[in-house]
Amino acid sequence: STNYALLSVNTSNRQYHSKQIIKASILFHISHWIINDLIDSLKEEVKDLKLYSQLVTALYLNALGCYHDNNADYLNQKLCLLMSKKTYDTVLSQYTIAQKLFMIGMEILSHQFPKEDLRCFQEAFKQAVESFNIKITLTSTGKSLEEYITNRQMTAGCIPYMKIGYLKNSIDLNLPLDYLFFFIKEHHNHINEIEKRANLFNGLVNDVFSLIRDLRDDSANIVYILSDSRSPEHLFEGLMKSIDYIRDLYKRIDSDFQSLFAFATCQSKQKCCRVIKSSIQSQCYASSIYYLYDERYEKGNRIMRLINNPKLPCPIKKSIFKRLIKREFYNQVHLSHL
Question: Please, which residues bridge with residue 219 across strands?
């Protein structure tokens, strides 16, 4: 998560305030990651996954001050009934660490910005954590692409860090935050659509690198939505369709940025556009690069290297892909040459 955080922000600027924002961003990423992994890793150990996810989310956000009407003791009692005492103690310890990391990050930012300037980040962070409940309960049997895309626009969890990037980039470009916030408010619908599409892009990149893991876990994934069946041949076709969808989506994002720059009728507005574009593109860059190096996505990375190998014709790629899938799920073929 630290590596992802560093990839998702431009670290070339050495201003003190800029460095402090990077520190806070890293802490938020780690905190967020702990909560998501805490929910995702205990799928098989809890009696009711949906309720467990909702309770952990509520406890975490309650501790951050996002909720004011939840009784923590009552939530803890309900959580304890879903698992063993040992597992409960682990959960409690992990989300306490996540809470502390987030609060330290907010303390760092509070020395750089007034509280009202941080509200957009806090609200986006709250929505990102809550929306993970949607992704975690979707299964690979879902058939509606439209429904899945609508959900995935919310569940990738990158929008809070786009907001952090706005703060950092405004400092780097000496752009007053009041002017930036006015520009964002003035073009809210347009910018909101770009943020959602970029969030979707990041989520779908995660999908194609998580093909094998999600299939084993019966988790939702665009590849399965676009595949006619779970056979290796159809999964290959679904993967190719997914990659085409992601490429077209990025072209749409780039077109949206061009439209946004058309509103930049003065130098200050051009700076606003550069602030927004740099932050969002950094998130897209991070999601594209991160999965190439994280060992948890080694199998997905292997598949993507195969798909992107320009020396192999498509029929050969399909044949190797089918054998790889069979090896993973049926242990029939050993592929030493991949």
Answer: 139
Please name every residue paired with 77 in a beta bridge, in sequence order, or none if there are none: none
| Cβ count near 79 (within 10 Å) | 22
Q: Which two tokens stand for residue 59?
A: 């406890």
Torsion of CA 301, 152, 64, 114, to 10 degrees: 100
- Residue 293 has, within 13 A of its CA and on its CB side, a CA count of 10
d(CA 69, CA 37): 26
Beta bridge partners of 139: 219
Q: Cα(96)–Cα(90) distance, rounded to whole angstroms?
A: 10
∠ CA 39-281-226, rounded to 5°: 60
Instruction: Return the closest-CA partner of residue 316 out of 261, 236, 262.
Output: 236
Q: How far apart are CA 27 and CA 31, in angstroms?
A: 6
Which tokens belong to 190? 């347009």
3-state secondary structure (DSSP) of residue 245? helix
Question: How many other C-beta atoms lie within 10 A of the C-beta of residue 199?
Answer: 26
Q: How far apart are CA 180 and CA 78, in angstroms?
A: 44
Residue 219 φ then ψ, to 5°: -95, 155
DSSP H or E run through 113: none
* Contact indicator for 258, 243 with CB cutoff of 8 Å: no
157: left (phi over 0), alpha (psi -120 to 50) or beta: left
Q: How many CB atoms lie within 10 A of CB 268?
A: 15
pLDDT at 329: 66
- Phi first, then psi: what are they for 139, rounded to 5°? -115, 170
The residue with tokens 């998580």 is: 210
Rounded to whole angstroms, the Cα distance separating 334 from 317 reads 16
Per-residue pLDDT of 172-190, as tens digits, reads 899 999 999 999 999 999 9
244-262 pLDDT, tens digit each:
999 999 999 999 999 999 9
Q: Mean pLDDT, to the nearest integer, of 166-176?
A: 91
**Residues 115-128 as b or e (16 or more Cβ within 10 Å = b):** eebbebbbebbbeb
